[in-house]
Amino acid sequence: MAVTYSIPRGTYDILPDKSFIWQYVQGLFRETAAEFGYSEIVTPIFENADLFERSVGDTSDIVEKEMYKFHDKKDRVFALRPEGTAPVVRSYVENSMHTLGGIQRLYYMGPMFRYDRPQKGRYRQFYQYGVEAIGSNHPYIDAEVIALQYTFLKKLGLKNIQLEINSLGNKASTDSYNKALAEYYAPHADKLCYDCSIRLEKNPRRLLDCKVPTCKELVAEAPVMLDYLDEECRTHFESVQTYLKGMGVEYTINPRIVRGLDYYTHTAFEFLNNYLGSQNAVGGGGRYNSLVEQIGGKDAPGIGFAGGFERLLLSLEEENLFMGNSFHPDVYVAVLGEESLLKAVHLMQQLRLKGIKVEYDPDKNSMKAQMKAADKAHATYALIVGENEINSGLYVLKTLTEGKQESLSLEDIITRLGR
Ligand code: AMP
After folding, report:
1. Are 264 and 397 within one domain?
2. By the number of CB atoms within 10 A of the CB, which of 68, 72, 99, 225 ranks highest?
3. Is 131 inside a domain boundary?
């Protein structure tokens, strides 16, 4: 009996009828990143598991519960990357990028892996785009990174997206805030879910992120981080807002944003599309001023964001926005008679070398079948290559929408269509 295989749960194929949409959004992201002066960095999809455990934090869900961890043949412990920041910072440190001087402005795109319960907008392999700016603590850089993601989403035409920002402060303010949280939660400890009782010990801030209803009720009255910011943190946060306003970036302050990963300090932000239902986070990020040192590098401040392409596509669909042009050939070649094929393949190759997209189907022989296929492929032109054309050196170029046709030499066709 033939074996059939199905795709792993929580993953999907991007088929040709959708891949052009991916090319469009990825192209627009590359373009926007370049406009802000960011260059691409590509890292492997697996890293030492320890990199994520130490940086993202072992109380975070993505490390604690969702990491695809495996042993290789030499018993080394690796993980499929659950996020992009730790690998980029690992590469920054390993390649001594601090010696290049100034701010390293980096962007990346690629698949991430989290073993979570799949649902609409949530997958086990999903694609993120993101940036990291490493080497400056200036609040302008926070605003620049936020503005980059904002600009990308605006360029796509999205309107239903809100930006929310918050400050998570520095180590000193986090310590006093954690103390306040611990005091607030102490009399309610028996009402907390199991995860939150552990978070209370290890990282109280993450209690604010819990989705369990009883925990959520307690969050409503919990102390707010913004009240615990020291002077330096408050000034930083205010300056970020001044630059955002200067750039025309609209936002609201949400003091409950904590972000799921442990390494964030100061500015944290999220882009939300509330029309998407429970998986409404389109992207987000924040500052991580101690991560570089934590990963073994020379102390350097950084800030970045990540966004998921899947939720972006859902948002585009929901707002009925342009999603790119599907592929279609410039020229569909109709070959009449077996003897004409050799000349036709030569012509096709000359056209392709000039950047013209050419399609030909050797299994269709009649003029009628080939013209039908040209229409189906949404080709702009049909090029007819038969005995008469070969003898005269003039080929029939037919516009498929209007049905106009002309007899042209190869040179004239290239002048007309070449890039
Ligand atoms: P995070 O690193 O969790 O802040 O995620 C950044 C962005 O990646 C989110 O705002 C989502 O757009 C996207 N994302 C995160 N997890 C998933 C997932 N399991 N499936 C699809 N998109 C995701």
Report:
1. no
2. 225
3. yes
287 CA to centre of ligand 1 in angstroms: 17
Q: How many domains does the chain have?
A: 2
Inform me whether the pLDDT recorded for 62 exceeds 90.
no
Stretch (H or E) spanning 406:
strand 405-408
CATH number at residue 25: 3.30.930.10
For residues 174, 177, 179, 185, the Cα torsion angle rounded to the nearest 10 degrees is -130
Task: Using the mean position of ligand 1's atoms as its centre, give its distance from the Cα of residue 156 in Å.
Answer: 19
Final residue before a domain boundary, out of 290, 318, 346: 318
Q: Is the CB of 188 under 6 A from ligand 1?
A: no
Residue 68 resides in a domain: yes
Taking the C-alpha atoms of residue 30 and residue 109, their distance in angstroms, rounded to an integer, is: 9
Domain end: 271, 294, 318, which one?
318
Kindly write down the DSSP assignment for every residue of 87-119, as one continuous string.
Answer: HHHHHHHHTTGGGG-S-EEEEEEEEEE-----B
The candidate with the shortest Cα–Cα distance to 152, out of 241, 279, 283, 273, is 283
Contact 276, 76 (CB under 8 A): no
Is the CB of 66 within 6 Å of ligand 1? Answer: no
Cβ 307 under 6 angstroms from ligand 1: yes
Shortest-distance atom of ligand 1 to CA 259: 4
Q: What confidence score (pLDDT) does residue 260 get?
A: 65
Q: Compute the distance from residue 307 Cα to the ligand 1 centre, in Å.
A: 6
| Residue keyed to tokens 């001594």 | 96
Give tens-digit pLDDT for 262-321: 678 899 999 999 899 888 999 999 999 989 999 999 999 999 999 999 999 999 999 999
Nearest-atom number in ligand 1 for the CA of 124 is 19
282 and 400 co-located in one domain: no
Nearest CA to ligand 1 atom 11: 308
Which residue is associated with the tokens 């596509």? 313
- Give the pLDDT band of residue 31 (cuts 50, 70, 90): very high
CA of 283 to the centre of ligand 1 (A): 7
Asked whether the beta carbons of 134 and 102 are under 8 A apart, the reply is no
The answer to whether residue 201 is domain-embedded is: no
C-beta 118 within 6 A of ligand 1:
no
Burial class, 411, CB count within 10 angstroms (exposed 0-12 / middle 13-18 / buried 19+): exposed
Mean pLDDT (the chain, rounded): 94
Per-residue pLDDT tens over the stretch 214-249: 888 888 889 998 999 999 999 999 999 999 999 999
CA distance 269 to 146: 8
**pTM of the prediction?**
0.93
